[in-house]
Every structure is written in C-alpha cells, then in structure tokens.
Amino acid sequence: MATTDEKIPVGISECLLGEPVRFDGGHKRNRFLTDIMSRYFDYRPVCPEVLIGLGIPRKPIRLVATDKGTRVRGVEDDSLDVTEALAAEADSALQRMPDICGYVLMQNSPSCAGFRMKRYTEKGFPLDSDGVGAFAGRLMELHPLLPVEEAGRLTDAGLRDNFIARVFAYKDWKDSVEADPTPGKLVDFYSRYKYQVMAHHVPGYKALGPLVAQAGSRDIHELCREFLETFMDALRHKATRKGNTNAMMHLRGYLRGLLDQDEQSELSEVIDSYRCGEVPLVVPLTLLKHYLRKVDNPYLQQQTFWSPHPDKLGLRNVDMG
C-alpha cells in the first residue's frame, strides 16, 4: 500500500507553482500539482533560465538544430547560446537535492521540456518536434531512473497514474532498500511489488524473478543496481486494461475453492466488465479485495497493486484506457 509519513521530495519547474519566472514575467501554475499533489509532494522548485542569469522578463530562446547538434539560442539574437549553461544547471540541481524521487517539468520550454519540443532550423524555420529542453535532457541523462513527467501530460489519466505510482515506488525503494541493502530487504521489497509489476510489464516481471532469486549469491550492491534498473523500466510502461486484468486473474487464483458459484460468477462478471471498459479499475479491485479477506494471507494484503498511490487521490476511479 502506498503510505508515507512524510512528503516525498520532488523537483519541479518553478513556474508550475505560480511563481512569475517565465520569460514574459508570467507563470504556469498547475492547480493539480499545487492544490492536490502538494499534500504528498515536497516540491523543490528550479527555474534554470533564471539561475543562469537570463533575468525576468527576458528575451525568448528556442531550440535550433545545427550540424553540431541541438542548441538553445536567442530568438532575436542567435549569438546568444545558453546550451551548456542550462545543462550545467541540471548537474547543480541534482547536487542540491540528491534525495528527490521524481521531477515535474514544464512542457514547451527550451530549457525544461522533456518530450517533443519544437526545433527550428538555423534560418528560423520550424523543423520538427524532436527536441528536449537542455536542462531536462541533462537531468534525465544524469538520473535515468528518476521518474520524470511534464505537467501538461499529467492531464492524461494513464500518464498521471503511472508517474505518481513510480514516484511512490522509488521513494519506497530509497526507504526500504537503498540505504542499507541486504538480500532479505530486496526479497521483501519485490514480494510487495510483484503484481504491480505484472500489471505494468510482463517481460519485466519475468526478468525480475530470476534476479531476486540470486539474492544471497551475488554482490548485493551490484544485484540491487541491476534490479532497480529493471524494476523502474518495467514501471515506466503504463499499466493497461489488459495488464491489470491479468494481475487480477492471477490474484483470483488464491480464491480457488473458497467461493461459491454465485460469488465466482459475480467476480468473473465484474473483472470482465473492467476488461471491456464498462467500469473503472476500482470496481473489480474492491470486490477482489473483499473476497480475498477469506484467505487472510499477509503476502496478498501487502501487495502494492491494491494502492500504488494514496486512495484519496481517486486515480483508479477514472478510465485510464
């Protein structure tokens, strides 16, 4: 279950908190982040453009494709090139906040965009949307396992659920294993995440089992590094309707012989209704948890699949596709 007694440290583009640090002196406050996720996230705000001295307000900059790679140059004065300065600010940011468990970036920003940023030719014509902000690109290069998302993409229910679940899982890893890894802690950690991983990515699920089986026979630090890479990559895949149904069917196997015919039919119908897109995930999950009380199995009760993030967020009450 996703619980934490303290807020989770998360990096964020400062303008998303309502701070007037944009090039035009404005902001891009995101109320989902400030009004809802602030109950769970301890934000560490960064505006790399301000930190490198561009000022407020400032002349706009953009991504320019050159024969030496993508550069960040001034729109009005292309002699202004802040590519290296913005990238270096990512190094500084991670040094200042080594404990962060996620990062929310501002979309459509030549410094902070994480995905599909517009690029221009050196003559100023639109080229493509294959760019990544200089700060964001360096951030993800330095910390490839860190859960990263753009604020604009969090309007997508599936991406929102996925990002928040990864942040909570990464925080759990840091608290449960990372500080003092042991074979027992690794086994206990994966035991709780088994069905959540199954819902996200079956190949990752199949790869993690053999890795965990090596606990006690391999150097624990090396094993944990390989495990975490595989684990976070698996969770990076969105949990699909098919994946969630697969996980629930496996959990249903623990009820074999414990339900009467009417109960079996009811559970089958509700899971199938979810599979067909007729009800949200919370409906079959609630019924399945109700029946699994008959088993009284601590292993099942501790599965993060039930609540990969706080139930109060209601993320499983909506259709995630």
Structure description:
The strands form two sheets. A four-stranded parallel beta sheet has the order 2-1-5-8, with helices on one face. A four-stranded mixed beta sheet has the order 4-3-6-7, with no helix packed on it. α3 crosses α4. The mean pLDDT is 95. The protein contains twelve helices and eight strands. The relative contact order is 0.10. The protein is of the alpha/beta class and 321 residues long.
Concise overview:
With 321 residues, this protein is of the alpha/beta class.
**Stretches where pLDDT falls below 50 for ≥5 residues?**
none
Choose one word for the global shape: elongated
Give the distance, in angstroms, between the N- and C-terminal Cα atoms.
23 Å
Tally of DSSP helical segments: 12
Radius of gyration from the alpha-carbon trace, in angstroms = 22 Å
How many domains in all?
A: 2
Largest sheet: 4 strands, parallel
Helix percent reads 40-55%
Strand order of the largest sheet: 2-1-5-8
Write down the secondary-structure element order: EHEHEEHEEEHEHHHHHHHH
Q: What is the structural class?
A: alpha/beta
Strand fraction equals 5-15%
Count of beta strands: 8
Compute the average pLDDT.
Answer: 95
Write the layout of secondary structure elements.
Elements lengths: L7 E6 L17 H6 L4 E6 L1 H4 L9 E6 L2 E6 L8 H14 L6 E3 L11 E4 L5 E6 L2 H9 L5 E3 L6 H22 L4 H18 L1 H11 L7 H17 L4 H12 L8 H15 L6 H11 L5 H4 L20
Helix pairs in contact: 3-4, 5-8, 6-7, 6-8, 6-9, 7-8, 9-10, 10-11
